[in-house]
UniProtKB/TrEMBL annotation:
One of its GO terms (molecular function) is methyltransferase activity. GO terms for biological process: methylation. It is an enzyme of class 2 (transferase). InterPro entries: Methyltransf_11, SAM-dependent_MTases_sf. SUPFAM superfamilies: S-adenosyl-L-methionine-dependent methyltransferases (SSF53335). Residues 51-144 form the Methyltransferase type domain. This is Class I SAM-dependent methyltransferase. Signal peptide: none annotated.
Length: 273
């Protein structure tokens, strides 16, 4: 059964179906210069059969297609996101399903890799999601997930620190539902979930994604990055905007930009053969 949190996310992404991929592709991994999709896919490799949990508009699957994976599938709650995914030439033969990751419409041992980029950390009933991933993974298959790691630095941290009390002050009936499982935030947490199901110890990589830009551009990025921003009324949002510009004024460089970055953790493991 679809949960309140899933309904909220589905409605959000149906309204703004490409917001996540545009945001991710705008940030560049420090020391690398590529988007986190590319770094993530390179770490996973080129498994022949890939399933993306929470595939959105198909940006990550398209990255795997360009990398050489031949058989691609994805599942997402948002019909709007999937409509965009189906327009991607790289995904012309991909199987893209509208549904819940807790109830995968795929057969046993159907994939060599199950992946998730910035979505697993938002999913309800993590244990059920992972049990389904185990079912559809072939022996020796890879499970990999990119998740948020920390509240960011520079102007991104300023936004987070200013907005958090405002999010908490939203009336409960309008507040963004609490989502996800905190075990997805660390390697130890992943091992706690995955180890008993036969996965090897998790390999954990951390990357930093740079969003340095002029203040107004960073403001726009942050409002997309933090889902609860959409729950603020116009007056509160205007107040947050003013406070953000005030607090970041001293961060502006001679080039007219403010530093802003967020951390991403990438967990990778393999199902015992």
């Amino acid at each position: 059964m679809t949960t309140p949190g899933e309904l909220w996310l589905r409605e959000y992404h149906d309204r703004k179906p490409d917001s996540q991929s545009v945001l991710i592709e705008a940030g560049k991994v420090v020391g690398d210069g590529r988007a986190s999709y590319d770094v993530f896919a390179e770490l996973v490799g080129t498994p022949p059969r890939v399933l993306d949990l929470g595939c959105g508009d198909g940006a990550l699957l398209a990255t795997f297609a360009r990398q050489g994976s031949a058989h691609l599938a994805g599942i997402d709650l948002s019909a709007g996101e999937l409509a965009l995914a189906r327009r991607r030439p790289e995904l012309a033969s991909a199987r893209l399903e509208h549904g819940r990751t807790q109830e995968l419409p795929f057969g046993d041992n159907a994939f060599d890799a199950v992946v998730s980029h910035m979505t697993l950390m938002l999913m309800d009933d993590l244990d059920r999601v992972v049990a389904e991933a185990v079912r559809v993974l072939a022996p020796g298959g890879v499970f990999a997930a990119a998740v948020g790691a920390g509240g960011g630095s520079g102007a991104a941290k300023v936004f987070f620190d200013l907005s958090k009390p405002m999010f908490l002050a939203v009336p409960e009936e309008h507040r963004a539902p609490v989502r996800g499982d905190r075990r997805t935030r660390t390697a130890e947490g992943f091992d706690e979930v995955l180890g008993p199901l036969g996965f090897e110890p998790v390999a954990w990589d951390e990357i930093v994604v740079d969003y340095t830009a002029p203040p107004e551009q960073v403001w726009a990025t942050c409002t997309e990055m933090f889902y609860p921003t959409s729950t603020l009324d116009d007056t509160t949002l205007a107040g947050l905007h003013t406070a953000f510009l005030d607090e970041t004024r001293d961060l502006i460089t001679d080039d007219g930009v403010v530093p802003a970055a967020v951390g991403i953790g990438i967990a990778r493991t393999r199902l015992a053969g």
